[in-house]
Amino acid sequence: MHDCHRTLICAETQTKSSTQIALCTSPLNKLLPTEDNHCNNPQSMEDNNNEVQKHVAVLAFPFGSHAAPLLSLVNAIAATAPFVKFSFFSTAVSNHSTFSCSANQVNNIKPYDVPDGLPEGYVVTENPIEPMELFLKATPGNFRSVTEAAAAEAGSKISCVMSDAFFAFAGKMAKEMDVPWVPFWTAGPHSLLLHVDTEVIRHTLGYTVRDSHEDKILDFIPGFSAVGVADLPEGIVFGNLESPFSKMLYDMGLALPQATAVAINSFEELDPVIGNELKSRFQKFLNIGPFPLTLSPPFTSDEHGCLHWLDMHKTASVAYISFGRVITLPPHELTAMAEALEATGIPFLWSFRGNIEGKLPEGFMERTSSSRGKFVPWAPQMQVLEHRSVGVFVTHCGWNSVLESIAARVPMICRPVFGDQKLNRRIVESVWGIGVGIEGGVFTKDGAVKALELTLLSEQGKKMREKAEACFKRPALKAAGPDGSSRENFKTLVELITK
After folding, report:
1. What value does the mean pLDDT take over residues 139-158?
2. CA 329, CA 442: separation in Å to the nearest integer?
């Protein structure tokens, strides 16, 4: 289990830097200014009387929840460095989605569309991986050509390359330009360490050995004594190790130690053992999160009345259910979850993307549509989690959702699907003790009932909430506050990128 006392140890207070950074004085204040919002005109860019001297290229991974947090970070940096140009490179679809939803957009960031690698007339198939693999085959040529064009258009050479950490080729581009490379890792520190240590893991376990080593514990890596081989993300020792995505992650693990600095959406006090291991691997490792506390949130509205509905319920009594913007669970699991909610009588708010028709038991919505349950196509998630009536978050356990739960001190019921989500579930349940996984890894009625009753109706659930508050939310607030570790690391990051 997570050592609460160790977690509460605060980073040593550092002397404030003289760099001109608009940091706030309250832990909950954000880094971005709120007076002006340029979201309606994301491509506006001013030269500020030709005083712009630096030009930062930002290379985004255009799938999943990658581009949005990178843009949020760039917004914060750009706001503190108004005379630095930031060119943001992603696909047209990604840029349209990301910039239209970005809050407090500053005017020294300009988006550029890179080719997505899809052939002309491409028809979307049932394989969600195919567009990503076609995009990866187009890299790095698509980024190189557009980056060169942007530098020529701006009349200023690239002075720094920021990128999603996935892009090892960004390090090569930066080396060719003789400029710093600062990758940003959008997931958690545990998965990052595993990818950097892939060679160690393969040397110890061998290749493609999941079946024979599934129960083996990764105790040969510091901080992983509660993690097993079955919790590893695909692409390390099982799955298709030769797929474009697996190769990208392998190349990333080899390249990141050469980066000028690696930034991450986390905070030093979250897991000092893992943090120290990562510091020993990189030239500079900068925790600058959690973003729900350190950066301005994306634009949120409550057009579906979620908060008003939550006002009608008792403290810590409601289950909030959301599986992110990408994942849709199979019908039999949705049915099982619905049956569990009905059997327990627990009130719920369910953010359900897509068409809900025919995916739940007949009559379920009608039977629960009064004060017991509410379905919405979208919810202001951070505001929902912070509401007093929410007692548990039923989640796919993506890293952004984990951090939002920590910031709101809400326990989790974890149903991971892919990527680092299984690993996150293991950390949340077995290391930190602030959530539970679903028995057997998939929703059944009995398993969901057990998880709901444990987190919402038992003494153990109450202790989870207390631990989430004392051992995670409070240290997170301190890290994000004045002279906190994440604030100081943000100053360092700005200096590296804009110097």
Report:
1. 96
2. 9
- Count other C-beta atoms under 10 Å from residue 484's C-beta: 25
Q: Where are the alpha helices (DSSP H) in 270-347?
A: 272-281, 291-294, 306-311, 331-344
| Two structure tokens written together for 456 | 């919402």
Q: From the CB of residue 369, how many other CB atoms can be counted at a distance below 10 Å?
A: 11
pTM for the structure as a whole: 0.87
Q: Where are the domains of the chain?
A: 13-298+488-498, 306-476
Instruction: State the DSSP string of 12-46.
Output: PP-PPPSS-----SSTT--SS--S---TT-TT---
Name all contacts of 448-455 with Cβ < 8 Å and 24+ positions apart.
448/336, 448/337, 448/339, 448/340, 448/341, 448/413, 449/340, 449/343, 449/344, 451/413, 452/319, 452/340, 452/341, 452/344, 452/346, 452/392, 452/413, 453/344, 455/391, 455/392, 455/411, 455/413
Contacts (Cβ under 8 Å, ≥6 apart) of 303:
none
Using one digit for the tens of pLDDT, what is the confidence trace for 354-370? 777 778 888 898 888 77
CATH topology assigned to domain 13-298+488-498: Rossmann fold (3.40.50)
Give 199's DSSP letter.
H
Catalytic residue among 164, 197, 271, 420: 164
DSSP 465: H
Cβ(96)–Cβ(90) below 8 Å: no
Rounded alpha-carbon distances, angstroms, from residue 470 to 5, 127, 311, 419, 463: 9, 43, 25, 29, 10
The contacts of residue 24 (CB under 8 Å, 6+ apart) are 30, 31, 482
pLDDT in tens, 327-337: 789 999 999 99
Classify domain 306-476 by CATH number: 3.40.50.2000
Catalytic residue flag (residue 66): yes
Integer-rounded Cα Rg, in Å, for the chain is 22
> What residues are paired with 349 via a beta bridge?
320, 374
2, 55, 66, 195: the catalytic one is 66
The H-assigned helical ranges of 291-376 are 291-294, 306-311, 331-344, 364-368
